[in-house]
Write a structure and sequence with these properties.
With 321 residues, the protein is mainly alpha-helical. It contains 13 helices and 3 strands. The protein has 2 domains: 106 residues, DNA polymerase, domain 1; 177 residues, hpI Integrase, Chain A (Orthogonal Bundle). Strands 1-2-3 form a 3-stranded antiparallel β-sheet. Strand 1 and strand 2 form a beta hairpin. Helix 2 packs across helix 4.
Length: 321
């Protein structure tokens, strides 16, 4: 019965409180929380974990009724289900979150050994993320050419994505004080809870300045440094979340008559355009917050064939004869 299964929820709540006490970023807590909550439901619900007999007919391990009974087999079943339901990349993220969770339980002496101590993360096949074509970008920005608060806000958000390559959470979870229009930099909290200053250009600065003036009118008072940077257009008291930004982008794509875009495509597009223009790789790594050349290679792979064709036009040995 479902009520006999162990409820991991209360223990997960304690872990999330510990993460907040360690001053982990809101995005880190959100990602880890989603993973462990999903795993808790998987173990708790009858349509979640199901014991599977092995090739010799030996019955599978039953759902745990106590914390000490959570076994590698349960975690493996969850990771496999997550791969099927979503993607290997998302399952890999959940794997990392759960491993951190069980290590915390071990440190807290709630368990004697981690069920994941000998597990390996799921393999992730790298997929080339398509960059956004210039004509699609033009159509997208055309949808917010107006002067309403929503138009000013959406233009500023889209321009920041394109001109800086910041991640969705890095853009969304910002305060007014993180933005410096005079220095033309945005202070963001990236992976590993590390702060960095991201530069942007004059066109982006103009879009942001227009938005800030529109936001002050929208709020009905001067903006203060500790206020959230982005606000809803229908409810001026409600901040814009990562889901709100995703919904906005989906709506703007529909208005533009283009294929639906994901915010992360702007990051790949930024890297591609930077490389195409001959930008320095060390500067690109500093702006994007990448610590390894592996990440540079991964993102630079998007539209790499196109850049190779462009380079060949200039360097063609045959044409130089």
């Amino acid at each position: 019965m479902a009520d006999e299964r162990y409820n991991l929820g209360p223990m997960a709540a304690s872990w999330l409180r510990a993460l907040k006490a360690e001053n982990k970023s809101d995005n880190t807590v959100r990602i880890y929380g989603n993973a462990v909550s999903s795993f808790a439901r998987f173990l708790l619900e009858d349509d979640g974990y199901q014991p599977v007999a092995d090739e010799d007919g030996k019955p599978g391990r039953p759902a745990p009724t106590d914390l000490d009974e959570v076994h590698r087999e349960h975690v493996q079943a969850y990771i496999a289900a997550t791969i099927t339901r979503t993607s290997p990349a998302n399952a890999h993220q959940h794997y990392r979150a759960l491993k951190t969770f069980f290590n915390w339980l071990l440190d807290e002496e709630e368990i004697e050994k981690s069920p994941m101590r000998t597990m390996k993360p799921p393999a992730v096949t790298e997929k080339e993320v398509p960059v956004i074509p210039e004509d699609a970008l033009a159509k997208l920005f055309k949808t917010c050419k107006g002067k309403t608060y929503a138009d000013r806000r959406d233009t500023a958000i889209l321009m920041l994505f394109l001109d800086t390559g910041v991640r969705l959470s890095e853009l969304t979870d910002r305060r007014v004080g993180d933005l410096d229009l005079d220095m033309m930099v945005l202070r963001v909290l990236g992976k590993g809870d590390k702060w960095r200053s991201v530069p942007f250009g004059r066109t982006c600065a103009t879009a942001l300045d227009r938005y800030m003036r529109a936001a002050a009118k929208h709020k009905g008072k001067p903006l203060e440094e500790d206020m959230w940077l982005w606000w809803g257009d229908r409810n001026r008291m409600q901040r814009l979340t990562i889901w709100g930004v995703g919904t906005m982008l989906k709506r703007r794509c529909a208005e533009a008559g283009i294929d639906e875009l994901h915010p992360h495509q702007f990051r790949h597009t930024f890297a591609h355009m930077w490389k195409s223009a001959g930008g320095n790789e060390d500067d690109l790594m500093r702006i994007t917050g990448w610590k390894s050349r592996q990440m540079l290679s991964r993102y630079a792979a998007s539209a790499g064939a196109e850049r190779a064709r462009q380079a060949h036009k200039t360097l063609s040995p045959g044409d130089r004869l």
